[in-house]
Amino acid sequence: MQKSKILITCPKGIPPFLKQELLALNFPILSEAVAGVETEGTLDDTQRLNLGLRTGHRVLFVLKEFSANDADALYRELVRIPWEELIASDGYLCVTSSVETPSIRDTRFASLKCKDAIVDRIKDKRGARPDSGPERDRSVVHLYWKEDRCIIYLDTSGESLSRRGYRKIPLAAPMQETLAAAVVLATGWQGKGNFINPMCGSGTLAVEAALIALDRAPGLLRSNFGFMHIAGYNEPLWRELREDARKRSKKELPGRIIATDIDPAAVEAAKKNAATAGVEHLIEFGVCDHAATDVPEGGGVVIMNPEYGERMGEVALLEPVYKGIGDFLKQKCGGYTGYVFTGSPALAKKLSLKPKRSIPFFNSGIECRLLEFDLYAGSKKQTQRRGDAATRGM
User: Fold this and answer.
1) 220-248 burial, b for 16+ CB within 10 Å, e for fewer?
2) Which tens digits make up the pLDDT trace of 176-211?
3) What gap in Å lies between CA 48 and CA 59, rounded to an integer?
């Protein structure tokens, strides 16, 4: 089967984590962009990527690269592609596009021209044409057109991979699944030690932490991908990949996952989402203020994703919350590594903790930071004194 370039898109800030995932899956890294990583493989390889990637949004398989200065030139190039070998004449087609070229004022016109070329070719060769529309649940073709450079892709994901299928009750302003997975990966947590998540909201961080620790492929939760609607879809391979992924998945964890929220409705939603993901037995949920969250001995990760005041006047109201988070981390979380995900540098200062690391992410276009804190058991000076005394006694 012929190899081609494959572009995996993702939010800004996530490419470093996506690269590590690709390398772990034995895919080469051809290039890295602000919001994507390029690799290569066959159409069958896109099944492995869609099944296993936690931080990617779409797996785009390159069909053709060419130059076009206007819509007519675009049509001429696209109609040469053997679409009848890829899309059934009685199927359904969605065309998406990213267009920035002088001859096109409305990107919808470029998408329409692309769709016309595809269905005209199929009708000419098969005597019938597929339906088309905006739904991404079947065959999806993506057009990238900048200046005179065009790339036409098969979108083998269809719906974004961030839509795992478990988040039935998202609540307001939820963290996207792919971002949550990248944040958990950034902490280095793999199931050893404990994962403590006060202010858990709809539970996305806790669920992604469980899936990562179990080594459970995120694509197992979904029943529909774009590659399933490409002619020649290798269904036996997909069944084999899914079965292998199920066998590899662990059943239990050595550490504990604890998720709490002061809002009973949030905790109920988180429980239902975890149940849909099949990990509810691994997460200990509780309704309480963050400061009352159980932090067991043994260390691990404690992570919080508080509000960060996107509207005028909210920052001042949240200052006591951030001060309380800082107090909780210092007073109750000794021996853990602490993390706070926030989009407000001003509020981060109210934690009164100096971060060891500040990792950039973007949440719905807002530049955010995952702040990492070493939380010493007792004060840092006490820990150092104990260490010095032990050294002198050797």
Assistant:
1) bbbeebbbbbbeebbeeebeebeeebeee
2) 999 999 999 999 999 999 999 999 999 999 999 999
3) 10
